[in-house]
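Before a colleague's protein record goes any further, I have to sign it off. Alongside the sequence sits a line of tokens, each denoting a local backbone shape. I want your independent view on whether this chain really folds as the tokens say. Where you disagree with what is written, explain briefly why. This is what I was given:
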Amino acid sequence: MTFIDDIYARIGDSSKDRFSRAHAILSFTEYLELLRVAPYRLTRDVAQYATDMMDHFGTYEVQGVGGPVRRFRVFDDPLGDGLVKVVGQEIVQNDLYGCLREFRQRRQVDRMLLLTGPNGSSKTTIVAARVRGLEAYSREEEGMLLRFNWIFS
């Protein structure tokens, strides 16, 4: 085996290992086993998934106008590249979290949230931070997302 063949073999083994760990393709039996082990994780609705993501990244207190206010770390750019950090807007963060919890409690997960406000009030940044948080959370074991496809050999 040449040096290049050895490199190709290591790259292939690494890819196979990552593919396997990511549960990229499961049989229906393997899915049912995952469902048996962690039914909550695989059967939650979108509102619960979104609040679980916010809980996953955690919170801390900051000083607000009327005293301490809870701030969600997902809005602090958890991926760490500084592109999507929300400055302030802790009340909006808490209202968003509260609305999602209320959707869940009322079993009305077919609702939408509309962010309104003047230019520069962090509407787009809030959405971008949530999207990046959801992407990061979906790569975690507790946030994995699965979909069904039929594969015929």
Q: What stands out?
A: The first strand starts at residue 59 and ends at 64.
